[in-house]
Amino acid sequence: MPFIFLLSLLLSSAVATADQRDCDETDLTDSVRSTDLHNTFAEYPARRTFFTTAEQEKKWLADMSQRLLSILPKNSILRREQTRLDLLRTVHYEASRAGLEVQKMLAIMHVESAFRKYAISSAGARGYMQVMPFWVEAIGEKEQHNLFSLRTNLRYGAVIFRCYLDIEKGNYYRALGRYNGSLGKEKYPRAIFEKEEKYWRWQP
Hints:
204 residues
């Protein structure tokens, strides 16, 4: 699905930055809003992935589920197998829907929140993808979009990162810097690439 945006960046998951508008909120709004983000459904996982066969999906889910389990603390809600599978299925759906590399989205979640659903940064970013609340006011539906809801958080994170990737013409290094609010600095992109290589690299 093509995404053509011109956008805005503001805060990172850890550090507040100046408001920078360089994305078209109309396009972002169209990409975020959907009946499956209504508060009745937003906590439910995606019902499918974008794998072409059930066997590929099964293999990927099993592999990623075990990798995820190996890094979780004992009190994580994701230690329950079905919860992990729900998360992974939704990650695959939302990343693929936005035209993102699924494994890189897992690495972003690893660095941003350590896969903590209710993580809140010092700047107020929320959830798995550490989405700032201002995005809901700018492009969402305040009464219905809860950034701690599974589908809502992953949808926002994927759409926003897709926007930055478009601005940077596919340059993941610079797009990651925008997502984190550290454009031009190598620490955050390097952390994402390292997590992806060490934990999430996958060959079908």
